[in-house]
Structure formats: C-alpha cells, structure tokens
C-alpha cells in the first residue's frame, strides 16, 4: 500500500534503516539531514508497494557508492544522484517512473527518497539486499537475473560515466569502485534499471516500511519504558525476517579497525557481564560473523546488529568504541537470501569465511566449533 | 590527397610513426602485426586528407590506452577498438564516417588503420599530438576547443564504459586511466568525436603520410648507402616540422627506468666519442628533455628521437640498452604546438620541468644553463 513520508517519520526511518544496515550503510544522521532538506521543498515523498507497479513501469534504483565517512566533510551538492539517474535515462532512452533503494542502511535507504523528492516520482518499498552489503554485485536483483549494467555514476561536478559489463556484475562493481576513488571516495549511482515485474520477482519487498516500523518500535518502547529489543523480537515474526534474538550482552573491550581499498575491515571484542567466553564480531563495512568463544553463532547473510544496551539504538561499525555497553542482536535474513544462488553471491565464502552458512536459529541451538 | 595503404607500406609507416613517437607510442613491430592481419582480409585501407572532409563528416579517433608493453603478451582479440567506436556511436547517436589517430607512434598510428580495415571507413591523415604524449588531455584537439568527452573504452570481453567529464579533459584522462588499470593495463578508446571542420581547425595535418615518408626515407637512404639521418634532415624542411638536427652522437652508458602509475619514467646517459660532456635524456614514456652537460638543448614539445648510429632506426625508451651507439636527433614541433595555449597543455611545466620552453633551433645556438 502506498504511503507518504514526512519529516516527522525520518528519525524512525533512519533508525530502522541503520538496524537493517547491520553495522554498515553509513551514518543515519547524515541520511536524516539529506532527506529533511529535500522534504522542506517537496512536502512529502510517496512510497509505493511493489504490487502497485505495472509491467510498464521502469524503476531505476539510486544509491551512494564509496566511503560514507567522506560525507561527514562533504555533503552532496544536491543533484548528484539525480545526475546519475538522468545520465542512465539518456543512455538507455528510457524514463524512470520510480526509484528504489539498492540496500537498507542509514544513508542508502534515504538517497532514493532524496531523488524522489526532487523529481516528483515515487520510491518503491523494496530493495536488493534487505540489509547492507559492501559490493554492488551482492544484490538479489543480480542473484535472480537482472543485470546491474548499464550503471551510471556521477560526481559533484555533474560529470558522469556509464559502465556496461553486461552480465558481469562483479566487474561492474570493480570499474565503478575505481571511479569512486578518482572522485575522491564517493560517487552517486543509478543501476539495475528494471520493469515492475522484475522488481516483484527479484527485490526484497517492503523494506522501507519495515525500517520505519523497526525504528518506531524502538522509539515507542523507550517512550513506554519497555525494553526496545524485546519489542523488536515481538515484531520480527510478523515480517519476512521471521526471528530476532539477543545472542550476547556485554561491554566492548577492543575494536580493531583498518581501511583497506575503501572498505573498513576489523573486529570487535565484547566481554560478558559474567564469566562467559567473549563474543567477537568481524566486519567488512557490515558485521559478517559473530562468535562466542570458539562457537560460530551468526553468519552472513543473517543480520548481526549491535545495539546500545539500554536504548536499543543501532551502532555502526564506524562508531563502535571501547566501553560501550551493548547487546548483539541477530535477525534471520529473508528466505530468498538463503537460497544456494544467493549464498554463492553473498554467503560466508564471498567474504573469505570458511564456514558453510547455517541459519542462526539452528546455530543458536547447536553451535558450530 | 587520398591514398591507399597496403601491406608493402607498413614497414615504412611504423618506422616513421615510431620516429614521431619520440621514444613512446609502443613497439612498431606490434603495430605492424596488427595492421598486417587486418589488411590480409581488407586488401587496402584508404587514407584521406583533412581537406577532403566535409562539415557533415563525423570523425571518431581511436587508440590504445595504457601500457603498450602489455600487448607483447596479449595481442588484442581484434574487435576491441571497434567495440569502443561502436559504443561511442550508440551513446552519441551519431555514426563515424572516418576514424583518425590521436597521436603518432608505433602502435597508435596503426590502431585506426586496424579499425578502418574492419569497418570499411577511411582514416584521416592527421592526429592530435603530431608526436606521442602520455596523457589524453595533451591533444591539440583539446587545446583548440574540442572536448574529449564523451569517451568510450572497451576491454577484450566486449565490456565498455563511457566517460563524460564535459570540458575537463584531464579528469577524463584520470577516469579512463583508472579503468585501464582494472582492465589489466590496456584499454581501447574512442574519443574527441568531431566534425570535418573541427578536424581541419584542431588536428596536426598529414602525419600518417609524413610517417610513411620518414620511414621510407630512412629505408631508402640505407639501401642507397647514404646516411639516413642526413636524408631526414633534408626532408624535414619540406614539412610542418621544419628542422631536424643531430645534437649528440655517442654510446649509451646508463639507463634508469621505473614504472610508476602505469608510466615508464627514467633517464638515459650517453657518452660522446670524444671528451665532450655527456648527454642525458629524461623520459616519461616519451623523451622529454635532452641536456648536454648542464645545458638544456631540447625541450618538450619539440621532438627528441634516439636513432641507431648507422641504421637510423628509432629506439623507443623501453628498448634503450647499455652499449647502444646512437644519435640524438631533434625535430622542431609544428608551430600550432608552440602557442601559449599548447605549451600550457603539454609544455615543460606539464611534465614537472622547471625550464621555460625555448624552440630547440634557438637553444642549439645559445644553450640554457
């Protein structure tokens, strides 16, 4: 069902998007600022359900590519993602009737809202990751047969490039990544253009409305002096993400973090409040694997989130700090992200992990050493 | 005047092109191989004079970008530069009526011949450097107001990208360079698309026929037991390159060479046969500055060539070796490459040299310390 987003919704939306961003996806405060400015001019933004798309619709997803941390010092001029979408329209000779996120995250859930506000087109309530991932080929769109190419990328000077690697979405990622580095670390992209039927077949549906519900659930629980994480656990079984569970509570005792080829890689160690073994969480932009002692407890593409112990506010990998008191909260990924084709694209092996994927709700019972 | 190139012409053509390549532009033997194969199928290639172009003609120059040394192990599949030209045609909606070199050099004088043979279109007898330079913004096309963008680049898998940095030709170079690195060191490009009037206004005319004459002059002098370099000196005053002169003869006693960001940089030292001071030649792909003792004698964009002492065969910077007996032969660059706008784009300062440009025919008399 279509609904409108107003400034009053933004706080909840970016909080929920940051939760789904599973440590990555950028600073939700920046996403908030971007869309708030666009909404001041536009009033509202319309979000439509994938089921409301006709087969004649042409949806062009839009996103930021690169290091979201660059944005802290350099907010977009305003037209960059629109420039990318326009460049793709001119190149393909087709006009976008809607835009859509490629992933859920503090910034990339908001870029399409920003585009929609400027162009007066709707945003589709869906995306291609149902969470955040670091690379452009890691899309359910790609898993289920939509090519990312042609991709358009724009910088803050209105300069653009088109990448067309046909069905090779990994090469599209590589070439576009090289361009973002030349652009100073960040570019704005339009890619995976597709019709309404392809959206319904390949996208994770209703992730914008889910982000809004998740963010609202955390806030309202706090307002009613309830435990936000308990409220989340009650909500999730009503969604495609059918289970959410706290796997560890404790205090962050160490964070290793390095930036390699534009990615933030590292590991956080969390000590429990008792004498249980420590929990470690490895990340590459996003949280990839959570272990307790030497037992693997959650594996990508299941969602690992780290939440402030009391407030339930999601903490991104870039803002993890020694001494934070946190809960590690795992969420089942939707079933269409656990198929063999999906796991080949963004399962543990795609990140260099040696474990085979096991759904966390089974790991939680048995553990894997 | 239009003329046809046949296999019998190729040896002379690539020898002359390597001379104009001024140390860069790649191995002429590879250029020879490429075009010989294309000519076996096509029979002849037609070269037309810039004055024969109508204003309705649309000329798309084609070239190799990257490290020509990669080609030694990986000859093009055949369709790469054609793929680039076709991608630019599709993107612009305009069809090329001819192609043209962007520079003179052992390989880039031949890529357009290769394209022309496959497509049955003519090659324009002109180029945008009148020699070789290492970067794409260093074109008389750019100096005199033609944009390089949109540029198309293709790899050996038929994958392509379009770069559109509007009037910023240096940024076009940077982005395309980043893509060639992702392509394994070499890409094939189509850029600086322009009409017939723009070719006549901005290109260095008749450099393909000049390469053919220069190469033939060297060969015929050898066959007639004349000094090839003397024969070149007699020919050049009939051309836009109005003067050629040996500035040093000797033996190579040292070559420093490093590869930095895809460029071959270095310095050659040449000891004279008497007790005169040594000659040094600095290069970045191409020879940039020749000094005798501490006197600067030739500066980019004037052409510095290093020729085998007896045969007059041009030696590229990549094939300079200790012990070679050589002559350093300087050639005046055409006047349209010595204007203030031209010198800003590819004069000494563009290569980090501190000397102001002085035409070599004046330096030869006075020297600069």
Automatic annotation (TrEMBL), chains A, B:
Family annotation (SUPFAM superfamilies): CV3147-like (SSF160991)
Domain S-Me-THD N-terminal: 9-164
Domain of life per record: Bacteria
Residues of the S-Me-THD-like C-terminal domain: 168-359
Pfam families in the cross-refs: S-Me-THD_C, S-Me-THD_N
Signal sequence, start to end: none
Identification of the protein by name: DUF917 domain-containing protein
Source species of the chain: Haloechinothrix salitolerans
């Amino acid at each position: 069902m279509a609904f409108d987003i107003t400034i009053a919704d933004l706080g909840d939306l970016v909080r929920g998007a940051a939760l789904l961003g599973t440590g990555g996806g950028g600073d939700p405060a920046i996403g908030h600022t971007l869309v708030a400015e666009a909404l001041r001019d536009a009033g509202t933004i319309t979000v439509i359900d994938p089921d409301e798309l006709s087969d004649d619709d042409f949806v062009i997803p839009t996103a930021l590519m690169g290091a979201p941390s660059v944005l802290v010092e350099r907010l977009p001029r305003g037209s960059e993602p629109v420039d990318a979408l326009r460049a793709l329209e001119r190149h393909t000779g087709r006009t976008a009737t809607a835009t859509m996120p490629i992933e859920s995250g503090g910034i990339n859930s908001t870029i399409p809202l920003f585009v929609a506000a400027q162009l007066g087109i709707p945003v589709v309530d869906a995306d291609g990751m149902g969470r955040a991932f670091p690379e452009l080929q890691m899309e359910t769109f790609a898993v289920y047969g939509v090519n990312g190419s042609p991709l358009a990328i724009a910088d803050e000077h209105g300069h653009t490039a088109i990448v067309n690697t046909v069905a090779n979405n990994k090469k599209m990622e590589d070439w576009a990544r090289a361009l973002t580095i030349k652009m100073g670390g960040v570019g704005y992209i339009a890619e995976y253009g597709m019709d309404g039927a392809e959206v319904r077949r390949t996208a994770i549906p209703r992730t914008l409305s889910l982000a809004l519900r998740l963010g609202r659930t955390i806030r309202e629980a706090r307002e009613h002096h309830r435990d936000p994480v308990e409220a989340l656990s009650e909500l999730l079984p009503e969604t495609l993400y059918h289970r959410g569970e706290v796997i560890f509570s404790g205090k962050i005792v160490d964070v290793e973090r390095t930036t390699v080829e534009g990615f933030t890689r590292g590991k956080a160690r969390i000590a429990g409040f008792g004498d249980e073994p420590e929990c470690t969480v490895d990340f590459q932009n996003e949280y990839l694997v959570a272990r307790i002692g030497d037992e693997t407890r959650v594996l990508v593409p299941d969602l690992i989130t780290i939440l402030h112990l009391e407030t339930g506010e999601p903490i991104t990998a870039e803002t993890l700090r020694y001494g934070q008191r946190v809960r590690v909260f795992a969420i089942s990924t939707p079933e269409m992200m656990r198929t063999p084709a999906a796991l080949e694209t963004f399962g543990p092996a795609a990140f260099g992990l040696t474990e085979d994927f096991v759904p966390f709700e089974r790991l939680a019972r048995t553990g894997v050493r």
